[in-house]
Amino acid sequence: MEKKLRIAVYPGSFDPLTNGHIDIIDRGRKIFDKIIIAVLHNPSKKALFSVDERVGMIKKTFKNGKNGNSIEVDSFGGLLVEYAEMKNAIAVLRGMRAISDFENEFQMALMNRRLSRKVQTVFLMTGLRWIFTSSSIIKEAAQFGGDIASMVSNPVKLKLEEKFEKFKKRK
After folding, report:
1. Domain boundaries defined on the chain
2. Share of the chain above pLDDT 90, in %
3. In sequence order, what are the beta bridge partners of 13?
4. What is the DSSP string of 144-171?
5. Which residues have a Cβ under 8 Å from the Cβ of 15 and sit 6 or more positions away?
6. Mean pLDDT computed over 13-21
7. SS3 of 72, please?
8. Which residue in 17, 32, 49, 88 could disulfide with 53, CB within 3.0 to 4.6 Å?
9. Inter-residue contact 148 to 160 (CB < 8 Å)
């Protein structure tokens, strides 16, 4: 009898992917056989990068081997639990940085639970070194030429530099 893979969906805007996200993914891989990094297409949010650019940066970040087949990168719109069920996931993986994240995450987890009893929500606390790291703070630092190399993967760093260089040329 073939063992059923324990698959988790790690959803987010990932605009851009940070080392805090990577920390959650790496630790999630110790719990699950496969993590699907699912970039949310949310037309109501103004993103710096297109969904395709975000998917591309994430694929480049995880391209160099250490993750084998345990990582998949995809995008989705609509209900998360429907997407998770379609991907045969047993869980939604979420990271929390601080108490301030808890209320919103708790509400989403309860709604997802109401919509589907097949998919559990698993929370991982971020590593202490990433507790103050967020995509928006990193974008702001990069916009003004700050050194973000220790907070993002090299593919993300290069794409941020490229994006903000284009903005500077337009001014």
Report:
1. 7-131
2. 72
3. none
4. TT---TTTS-HHHHHHHHHHHHHHHHH-
5. 45, 47, 48, 49, 54, 135, 139
6. 96
7. strand
8. 49
9. yes
Q: Is the pLDDT of residue 111 over 80?
A: yes
Strand order from edge to edge, sheet including 91-96 = 71-76, 34-40, 7-12, 91-96, 120-125
Backbone conformation region of residue 29, classed left if phi is above 0, alpha if psi is from -120 to 50, else beta? alpha
Q: For the chain, where are the alpha helices, taking DSSP H only?
A: 19-28, 51-61, 80-86, 99-115, 135-143, 154-170
| Least confident range of 10-14, 44-48, 56-60, 146-150 | 44-48
Q: Beta strand pairing status for 71-76 and 34-40? A: parallel
Does the domain at 7-131 match CATH 3.40.50.620? Answer given as yes
pTM: 0.90
CB 119 within 8 A of CB 48: no
Q: Among all residues, which ones are annotated catalytic?
A: 21, 45, 97, 135
